[in-house]
Specification:
By secondary structure, this protein is mostly helical. It has five helices and no strands. The protein is rod-shaped. The termini are far apart.
């Protein structure tokens, strides 16, 4: 399920997400963040840049030309926003479950009271 669809459901006051869906959504965001940082190695110097000064200067020039630090910050900011959104979904889902549990406890108290009253009557 896409985030856009979930936000639309929230607009109508509906949110039907299981723990698995929340976990998958969080996993996708975290995987994207991890891949950006480690697999792509956006800010890491290649090994050759550590050995040759010309290669390091070339890497620095390319890094500035392609604005790698700025791009990394933008990606980091976007993933933080996505994580914030998934946290909101998680807290809403947990609050909804908490409300259901509270109602179940109330109903059980009422049933217990009714049973004790009926027991005293009969």
């Amino acid at each position: 399920m896409k985030l856009r669809n979930i936000i639309e459901y929230l607009n109508y006051g509906k949110l039907h997400l299981s723990d698995n869906q929340l976990a998958k959504m969080s996993s996708k965001v975290l995987r994207f963040k991890y891949n950006t940082i480690s697999y792509i190695m956006l800010l890491d110097k290649p090994d050759i840049a550590w050995k040759l000064e010309d290669a390091e200067a070339f890497f620095i020039n390319l890094s500035e030309l392609f604005e790698l630090k700025d791009r990394y910050e933008k990606i980091r900011h976007k993933t933080e926003v996505l994580l914030d959104i998934t946290e909101v979904f998680t807290s809403l889902t947990h609050a909804k479950r908490g409300t259901k549990l509270e109602w179940m406890v109330i109903i059980l108290f009422i049933v217990e009271i009714v049973m004790s009253i009926l027991e005293k009557i009969f």
